[in-house]
Automatic annotation (TrEMBL):
Keywords: Cytolysis, Disulfide bond, Glycoprotein, Secreted. Gene3D superfamilies: Low-density Lipoprotein Receptor. Disulfide bonds join 43-61, 55-70. PROSITE patterns: LDLRA_1, LDLRA_2. This is Complement component 6. Pfam families: Ldl_recept_a (PF00057). It is found in: Secreted. GO terms for biological process: complement activation; killing of cells of another organism. One of its GO terms (cellular component) is extracellular region. It comes from Nothobranchius korthausae. Its main location: secreted. It comes from the Eukaryota.
Amino acid sequence: RSVMISSQFGGSSCSGELTEDRPCYPSKLCQLPPVDCRGDFKCDNGRCINATLTCNRQNDCGDNSDERDCG
């Protein structure tokens, strides 16, 4: 047994976009718990990296905060 014509679209071929993009505006902001980096370096974006990765001329944080104030 095989399907010759799909009944999903009334037997017509599906044409056009299969996805739709639209903006989503949440009704309230998410409250994220504070991050404890313990002995690591805490980036301005909240990410934790090993303290030895600071001031190595590489943007390990992704926001370059690990390369600021390097004397």
